[in-house]
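Ops channel
N.P.: pipeline sanity check, posting one input/output pair.
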């Protein structure tokens, strides 16, 4: 992955089911030990998309992936790791914990933008697949029909949110815990629905570097290409299955298989 990863000690993240933080004393002890054994400490690695960089062509080019994942996403990871070298308190958090903690109830800490963008991009790459598109199936489609009236209504609302987003940001399909329903939300810059306690199901990156090389300023063509040819509904269904462990939706139940 480049020179950053030379002489690196990788510290495995705790499972996402853990919600408590490592004590500051233990964090500092681990950090001092790591600094004594390595020149660089890597808290988080750059995850590779679950397909080759040219696998989404012609709808998302290899060149876009090289710039978007290889430069922008990498820069967020590297920037975050540099910040964490100076902040012992955040050492050992899972990425979910890090995003929520650094959001600081709407008064973001310096680490938030990089942490949230790392999380957002990992989620985005895993929201697409080669030969994607079409429609969700089974329980997820039923839930969309229940909460939006129809899949067509959902798609129109998702597209409208993407095209009306001012500046840079993201569009999401989320499950709202309190309301117990699916909703389309949009966020600015690095903000992720995690900070509002929503459960993300699907995302679309609407930063300019996500589409400009392939679509110039034609955002509508980019959004339609995502919906018609890239979106990975199986991944969204799996996320809904997990979400139902936390939110009782009643009928319809999302089938595991």
């Amino acid at each position: 992955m480049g020179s950053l990863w030379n002489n690196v000690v990788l510290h495995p993240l705790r499972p996402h089911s853990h919600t408590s933080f490592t004590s500051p004393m233990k964090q500092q002890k681990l950090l001092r030990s790591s600094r004594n054994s390595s020149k660089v400490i890597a808290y988080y690695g750059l995850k590779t998309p679950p397909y080759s960089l040219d696998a989404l062509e012609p709808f998302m080019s290899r060149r876009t992936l090289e710039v978007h994942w290889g430069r922008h996403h990498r820069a967020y990871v590297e920037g975050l790791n540099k910040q964490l070298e100076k902040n012992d308190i955040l050492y050992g958090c899972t990425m979910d914990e890090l995003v929520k903690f650094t959001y600081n109830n709407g008064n973001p800490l310096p680490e938030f933008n990089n942490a949230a963008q790392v999380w957002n991009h990992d989620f985005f790459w895993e929201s697409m697949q080669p030969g994607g598109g079409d429609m969700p199936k089974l329980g997820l489609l039923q839930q969309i029909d229940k909460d939006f009236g129809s899949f067509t209504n959902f798609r129109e609302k998702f597209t409208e949110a993407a095209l009306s987003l001012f500046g840079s940001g993201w569009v999401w399909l989320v499950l709202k815990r309190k309301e117990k329903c699916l909703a389309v939300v949009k966020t600015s810059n690095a903000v992720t629905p995690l900070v509002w306690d929503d459960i993300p199901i699907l995302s679309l990156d609407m930063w300019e570097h996500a589409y400009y090389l392939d679509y110039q300023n034609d955002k509508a063509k980019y959004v339609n290409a995502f919906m018609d040819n890239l979106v990975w509904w199986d991944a969204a269904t799996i996320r809904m299955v997990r979400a139902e462990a936390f939110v009782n939706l009643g009928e319809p139940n999302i089938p595991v298989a």
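N.P.: looks fine end to end. The longest helix spans residues 62-84.
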